[in-house]
Amino acid sequence: MTTAQHLNQQFGIAGQLTFRDDASGLVVAEFNNAHATASLCLQGAHLMSWQPRSQSKPVVWLSRDAKLAAGKSIRGGAPVCWPWFGAHATEAGFPGHGFARTVPWQVLESGIEPNGATRLTLRLVSSDKTRAQWDHACNVDLTVIVGDTLRMEMATENTGTADFVIGEALHTYLQIGDIGAVRVTGLEGCQYWDKVGGSELKNQVGSVSFTGEVDRVYINTSAECVIEDDKLKRRIHIKKSGSLSTVVWTPWTEKAGKMGDMGQPDGWREMVCVESVNAIDNVVKVAAGTRHTLIVEYRAISF
Fold first, then answer.
1. For this structure, is 136 an active site residue?
2. Among 153, 168, 270, 275, which one carries the catalytic annotation?
3. Counting Cβ atoms within 10 Å, is residue 275 exposed (0-12), middle (13-18) or buried (19+)?
């Protein structure tokens, strides 16, 4: 197992990127540059936090009750859902949202961008356990660029001789002032699968606002979304490519209470998920010898 000491020797960047051994036994990368701070757990390539210097509050939300543990997902941040989104199509025993968020990833490269942002690239580590669930030859890399904007690039390369189909998401939790005082724009007129109380195809009228549980998969949209936050007086812009689905999710009181790690009693009110996805109608066929890349960029602007 690679230790933080070895990673610091090989990939650390003085004054910008350091690795530490967490008490859980996992390794965490810490970003700290002129533009922003951030943290990322190598298990799952799971970005846990991001706060630009221009913002008094984090932009990526991490539950105050989040726990790091081997083989377990972390509540908050930006979980990597891959190679399927939601439940597996045929195997009920396989984990929801795939296995990528709970298995080791290895560091491939680090560097500094021309604008001073910090770059880190990781690759999913295949094992007998992952191959038992996904028996396709491929490389899955995640590049995170931490600056005044946050850029995440998830690339799936088919290194085999047969095509395969993936579902995927960057399941990002965004920090807000209060769920009752925000709205999401950019999805007006889009169709969505409403997952609350069943699965029904509906049309979005106006912006998305929140008065109860919301779990929607918007399809056939590459639109930029904006979280309008009147309480924190900022807008979070979410711009993407290589993604044709957007998921908007808040658990609301009852479901949050059953989760146990949402930061009770009201932590769930300070987050909303606006996820860049390829799912349901928009799963992606990756032909043999080709690469598919999902790219998302986040930025926060105060008003």
1. no
2. 275
3. buried
The catalytic position among 171, 213, 254, 297 is 171
Average pLDDT, the chain: 97
Q: Note if 292 is an active site residue.
A: no
What's the number of domains the chain is made of?
1
Residue written as token pair 């998305």: 208
A 10 A CB-CB count for 197 gives 8
pLDDT score at 1: 65
**Which residues are 292's β-sheet partners?**
156
DSSP strand pairing (27-32 vs 36-41) = antiparallel
- Secondary structure of residue 44 in the 3-state scheme: coil
Residue 275: what pLDDT?
Answer: 98
- CB contact set of 289 (below 8 Å; sequence gap of 6+): 158, 159
Domain membership of residue 172 as a residue range? 4-302
CATH of the domain at 42: 2.70.98.10
110 with 120: CB under 8 angstroms? yes
Residues of the chain with pLDDT under 70: 1
Q: What is the pLDDT of residue 294?
A: 98
Nearest to 142 by CA among 171, 106, 114: 106
**CA 139 – CA 264 distance, rounded (Å):** 38
